[in-house]
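Ticket #404: bound-state structure for S-adenosyl-L-homocysteine.
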Amino acid sequence: MEKKTEKKGFVPARKKSSPPKRAGKGNACPLYKKCGGCQLQNMTYPEQLSFKQAKAIRTLGRFGHVEEIIGMEKPVHYRNKVQAAFGTTRGGMIVSGVYQSSSHNIVLVDECMLEDQKADKIIVDIRHMLPRYKLTAYNEDTGKGFLRHVLVKRSFSTGEIMVVLVTGHHLFPAKKEFLKELLKKHKDITTVIWNINGGKTSLVLGDREEILYGNGYIEDVLCGKRFRISAKSFYQINPLQTEKLYGTAIEFADLTGKETVLDAYCGTGTIGIVASDKAKQVVGVELNEDAVRDAKYNARLNKVENIRFFCADAGKFMVAMAEEREKVDVVLMDPPRAGSDLNFLKSVVTLSPEKVVYISCNIETQARDLGFLCKNGYKVRKIQPVDMFPHTAHIESVVLLTKK
Ligand code: SAH
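RESOLUTION: The complex was predicted; output attached.
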């Protein structure tokens, strides 16, 4: 998610005065071609949904009936996480925005129809503030300069806002004054983090982090539970649709309170914690250490006592569970785009849970993995696509499998 391409030049701005007026009605954004983030913007939103539905049927239809995709009522400004790269034009003007697809250019973005408007405003204000403090944008070629990226995360439910200032060096001139002005301009910012990333890397965030204001994280409420979000941990970016996605997954699991549930690829524990009320116990497994730390914290925050988290490769963890003949009734799995691996899938077959609920952000790899499970004793019972990323080509889907 934090990846980017190289940059060098600059693409002229979309003016503040030209917001995406026709959002959702086709080709709404003036940056449509330059940015490349919204592949489907030449279609109206209903057309996009039909397009995604047809693709879901082509890819998953051989496993069974594909339910109608769950769309958004207002498919704009849904992103709760916004990041902008900073650079300088040849004329010396500081720009912020996204990297143009397959080029070296930064596309100057003041507003984006996918992004949270408050976050966009904060980023533009930071850009305007820099020259007054004699602060520059970082230059990746020379390694000189100051600000590399700004990342903003906002909880739509609690209103809490995190601003992460990513610099190339461990030096922040006029730090106090800059911070004071930023907080004065945006009184609803609840935490500011200074992240240092001096590496030649495609990652936005570096390893060193200093909290400049607040407690270093924000909290969000999802499906009635509270979750801590730190700068680095994975968190779904479209909260409205996430509730529908998790709701569908938990409905498919149809828990009675007696089940042992495995939440595989659990991130910060969100799905498992939401499911915990209806299960006997939940085991979560996740590779990223920071996410596991957040997951454990989130369990305590919600006073959930029937959940345990393990930091491990989900495939290896499953093999170990299968060797020890642990009993699992329901596997909830939500792997990254690459899908699951053979270790994991073989162990699912060995552990033989009654139900598998497979959430995927890439229906191609999901179809491949479903193929394996269907050859090995499982049958697909329900397929529900969810539109998590309107205007982009991505399709998310939830599939229920049970033993034949
Ligand atoms: N279910 C979570 C996270 C889904 S994203 C949510 O809805 O928020 C996929 C997660 O899989 C990421 O947190 C990623 O760190 C994790 N992951 C990637 N490869 C993994 C592996 N081999 N084993 C376990 N977890 C992995």
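RESOLUTION NOTES: Residues 38 and 392 are 4 Å apart (CA to CA).
TICKET STATUS: resolved
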